[in-house]
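Notes on consecutive records. When two proteins share a document, each keeps its own sequence and its own token line. Never mix them. Below: protein one.
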Amino acid sequence: ISQPWIANLFPNPVQNSGKLNLAFSGSGYKSLQDMQCEVYNVKGQLIQRTSIPKENLALGLWTFDTKGLAKGIYLVRLSSVGKLRWAKKVTIL
């Protein structure tokens, strides 16, 4: 997946009652429209879908609460205008 920006997911692993941060850097993330964050379990089931507010993209940081997610391994995917832009494995403790 090539793009003029990168995302960093931290902390990883994270506690199931903690906060997971996505930090964006590079030149292209501010111009993205309708950024979606999707969380999938290891079975490929969509667990959570959230829109990332444009103002968070402008700041380069977005935080979401992992409360309610069971312990395990998940795939966090970012997409914009229906295209996969980034994906990362995260472990919830």
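Protein two starts on the next line and is unrelated to protein one.
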Amino acid sequence: MRALPRYRSREEVWALRIAAVRNDVLLFDDVQYAPYRIGQAWVDHYRPEPGGYWIRRVDLNELYLPAAAFELAFQVVGYGSRAVI
């Protein structure tokens, strides 16, 4: 397992940029991270698109933001040891 990059805005989160979505599996731009099965309910709710960001909050809730919104709001602050994928 590899620690996820940390980002900060109003809160600190971990996030990865999405390269592709195949059914309920996210593939990431950084190929050092394995594909991640997120579940069809999450995909149906958020409708993630390539280029957007999968986000894991401190409370372990997983969200999606389009690239423009994420990149405007969040700044990278390093890698955290608490969240891994």
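For the record: The chain has a mean pLDDT of 91.
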